[in-house]
Amino acid sequence: MTIHEAHGLLKDKQLSSVELTKACLERIGEVETRVRALVTVTEELALKQAEKADELLADGNTSPLTGIPVLIKDNMCTKGIRTTCSSKMLANFVPPYDATVVEKLNDCGAVVIGKANMDEFAMGSSTEHSALFATHNPWDLSRVPGGSSGGSAAAVAAGETIYALGSDTGGSIRQPAGFCSVTGLKPTYGRVSRYGLVAFASSLDQIGPITRDVTDCALVMNAIAGYDPRESTSAPQPVPDYTQCLTTELKGLRIGIPKEYFVEGMQVEVETAIRVAINKLEELGAKVEREVSLPHTPHALAVYYIIAPSEAMANLARYDGVKYGFSYREAESMWDAMEKTRQYGFGDEVKRRIMLGTYALSAGYYDAYYLKAQKVRTLIRQEFDRAFEKYDALVTPTSPTVPFKMGEKLDDPVQMYLSDVCTLPINIAGLPAISIPAGFADGLPIGMQIIGKPFSEETILKIAYAYEQAMEWHKRRPLMYNKV
Ligand code: GLN
Q: Model's pTM, two decimal places?
């Protein structure tokens, strides 16, 4: 069920929030041993929140999210609920406060059903870098769900929750959404508060919805977007009603297709599906320009892998075994304790990022790497600015391939990094982008990415909605839905 379908039933008293919550918990019981999307199931809390939501519903006092189960990625702080970042470092960390997004959902009477698995500290593209366990793709259990918000996307696709929150630093909402055939939106940088989101790379991180359709995505944005005085990069722009833009009329919209996103080595079926989808957008009334060029695109991956690790190494310095989180106890001295805490607390990918970032910021290398990456970042942003003088949106594949086999890219970090080539540039420029289902190759999902100018979430939601309504890919469900 979608949020809007469930809301209709709840409002008309055909369903109670307790019933809906129990149905999700039952579903978790049925499929979770195979999908493994949840780090924590908050059954008791969920049922308590559902009872409260039913009271709100009885008073007629509701928002579209009241009484509806949501799964939160495990890098967003939840008061009194373990928040692990899928790391040994935070395996027993219970935050004393809620992230702003969680607070906002709670204010709407949402039902928090649990915390979603992820790549450790959101570093990865397959959820295999979780220090706890790997998550499986509901469309093919031998394949990855994408990452780092793989738990969030897999759980939505497998019916374990009605919707989820993810975070996106270089593609972590959109790539898993594409891999699991669900809808995922990375908002404009600053649109959604990062307060209470465990920081990975602060100039790139954004929280956003992972849902079953575009309407749900708009409904969640209505609830979580907006200015937050507790977050210094939070944007003051007023929040529109994102459902108002959902029409199937694309006449007058100009869409550009940047050729650099159809990268060498891209899977043919993916390219074909996206080209067919683009034809559909044209049929729906959009004016499509197929030969747009963003020549700095090939540098985005290198820029990202300088800037993100540099910020990560600064952000992760707080895990020293003293302030909170894991602490190595049998040490000989303070320095030994700090060293061993990090040695045992962090996984290999996190250590790799810390080393890359430390290197890039060292005296003598700073100008050659970090400063240069920042300059190229500016060029990439300017290139997008120029493109958006001519186009309202840009359309690309979300990923160059369909979901890959588990283990396939685990020993080759660069191959893993390459699965985000189409999504990374968008974070570098701080733009909003959505991934929606755009077909299948041999039963494996293909995602289409729609990119907008800053704060034009309405435009990309509109294009996404028109396409979704015309194609109905979002209504397909994985086979495991039937074979329980
Ligand atoms: N896969 C990318 C990385 O490993 C992006 C992750 C993310 O968006 N959090 O950094």
A: 0.98
Beta bridge partners of 210: 164, 184
Alpha-carbon distance 121 to 40, whole Å?
A: 16
pLDDT(361) > 80: yes
Is 148 among the residues known to form the active site? yes
pLDDT over 90 (residue 114) = yes
Helix (H) or strand (E) holding 276: helix 268-283
Which residue, judged by its Cα, is nearest atom 4 of ligand 1? 124
Does the structure show a pLDDT above 80 at 480? Answer: no
Catalytic, out of 126, 149, 172, 435? 172
What does the chain come to in residues? 484
Look up residue 379 and give its amino acid: L
Are 70 and 111 within 8 A, CB to CB? yes
Q: What is the CA radius of gyration of the chain?
A: 21
Q: Are 396 and 259 in contact, with CB atoms under 8 Å apart?
A: no
Q: How confident is the model at residue 482 (pLDDT cuts 50, 70, 90)?
A: low
Closest approach atom of ligand 1 to CA 122: 9
Residue 63: active-site member: no
CB 234 within 8 A of CB 206: no
Tell me the average pLDDT of the chain.
Answer: 96
Tell me, in angstroms, the distance from the centre of ligand 1 to residue 469's CA: 30
393 to 3, 174, 286: CA distances (angstroms): 27, 16, 10
Interhelix angle 100-107/214-224, nearest 10 degrees: 100
The residue type of 67 is G
Ligand 1 centroid from CA 475, angstroms: 28
**How large is the average pLDDT for residues 90-98?**
97
Strands 111-116 and 69-73: parallel
Residues 6+ apart with CB under 8 A from 58: none
> With 60 as the cut, is the pLDDT of residue 130 above it?
yes
Helices 3-11 & 214-224 angle (0-180, nearest 10): 80
Catalytic residue among 148, 152, 167, 456: 148
